[in-house]
Amino acid sequence: MKNPYQKTAKFYSKAVNLHIQRSGDYISLCDGYSAIRVHVAAYDSFFRPVSGVFVPLADGEKASKAQDDKIASVNPCGIDIEKIISDFFLKRSGSVAVSPFLMEFSRYGKKKEYIRIFTGPGFYAGINENYYAIALENGFTSFESCGNGSRAAITAESWEHKMIVLPINMNQEAIKEFVNVL
Question: Whole-structure pTM over 0.85, yes or no?
Answer without folding.
Answer: yes
